[in-house]
């Protein structure tokens, strides 16, 4: 039995637990950039060493045998502890290293986060990045993501959430559209074509000098986009007036491609919806790579001044 245990490698156990988590060998293979047959051989080899079957072979989907379920439940805490021990040992060298897996929202990633990476990489050249750009709010723990930037509420529990900045929504349109559909008063918005990425029946505004008085305006739903980046592009093509995040339209406003409409008003929505947050799993030990990059992003993104 001792020889059998000696022959089991941590990588085999890691693949086993990942297969249980993802539910099939193909997903594990894709994540690790190897063939599904290689994953199958690893599991078969582990079963040979253990002397019992881990998965039922008669089902289309992965299903643990009773022995397999007991084994996986027993080894997971120990394997997690070993992985954490390795991270702590590496951190003791005071070198930021390893691979940092992060997820970022489209648009904001390309415009505000990726330009910050060059400076950080010069400071910490041994750190590698695995960057996932998604509209979807990925499960950080399930996907083994170290850190995320999220705009708005984060419904997942078990996370540390650090507010970095607040986005201001601006009402904008092209000069050409405003010639065709003049907007001199807030009521004129009801008649103007609009591009939405917010699923609201009406847009809410308040005058700068009376922020507590909110004006609700029913807007035409001419075009609905599922993200702000697409809404911006359609707005730039003159398809309608739009409420867009300030960080996304700085250049377009400066170059005159877009102009701010009714600039005596502000969009009046819940600020939490448009807050930029830094989030990471709330674990007993925060790896140095995550802590150092989180501190860097907090410093850089909190200092952003949008126009």
From TrEMBL:
Residues 8-65 form the HTH lysR-type domain. The lineage of its organism: Bacteria, Pseudomonadati, Pseudomonadota, Gammaproteobacteria, Thiotrichales. It comes from Thiosulfatimonas sediminis. Keywords: DNA-binding, Transcription, Transcription regulation. This is LysR family transcriptional regulator. Belongs to the LysR transcriptional regulatory family. InterPro entries: LysR-type_TF_proteobact-type, LysR_HTH_N, LysR_subst-bd, WH-like_DNA-bd_sf, WH_DNA-bd_sf. It holds the Pfam family LysR_substrate. One of its GO terms (molecular function) is DNA-binding transcription factor activity. Coiled coil: none annotated. The keyword Amino-acid biosynthesis does not apply. The keyword Cell membrane does not apply.
């Amino acid at each position: 039995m001792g020889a059998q245990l000696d022959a089991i490698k941590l990588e085999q156990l890691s693949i086993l637990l990942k297969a249980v988590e993802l539910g099939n060998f193909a997903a594990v293979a894709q994540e690790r950039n190897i063939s599904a047959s290689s994953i199958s051989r690893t599991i078969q080899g582990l079963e040979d060493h253990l002397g019992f079957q881990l998965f039922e072979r008669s089902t289309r989907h992965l299903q643990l045998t009773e022995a397999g379920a007991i084994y996986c439940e027993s080894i997971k805490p120990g394997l997690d502890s070993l992985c954490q021990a390795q991270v702590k040992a590496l951190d003791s060298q005071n070198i930021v290293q390893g691979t940092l897996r992060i997820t970022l929202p489209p648009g904001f990633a390309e415009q505000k986060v990726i330009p910050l990476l060059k400076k950080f990489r010069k400071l910490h050249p041994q750190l590698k990045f695995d960057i996932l750009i998604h509209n979807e709010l990925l499960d950080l723990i399930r996907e083994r993501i170290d850190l995320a930037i999220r705009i708005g509420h984060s419904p997942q529990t078990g996370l540390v959430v650090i507010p970095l900045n607040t986005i201001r929504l601006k009402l904008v349109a092209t000069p050409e559209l405003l010639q065709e559909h003049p907007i001199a008063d807030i009521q004129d918005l009801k008649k103007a074509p609009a591009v939405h990425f917010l699923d609201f029946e009406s847009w809410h505004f308040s005058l700068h000098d009376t922020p507590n008085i909110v004006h609700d305006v029913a807007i035409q739903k001419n075009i609905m986009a599922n993200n702000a980046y697409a809404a911006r592009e359609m707005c730039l093509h003159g398809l309608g007036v739009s409420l867009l995040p300030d960080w996304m339209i700085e250049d377009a406003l400066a170059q005159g491609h877009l102009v701010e409409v009714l600039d005596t008003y502000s969009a009046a929505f819940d600020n939490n919806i448009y807050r930029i947050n830094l989030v990471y799993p709330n674990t007993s030990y925060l790896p140095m790579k995550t802590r150092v990059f989180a501190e860097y992003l907090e410093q850089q993104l909190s200092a952003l001044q949008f126009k």
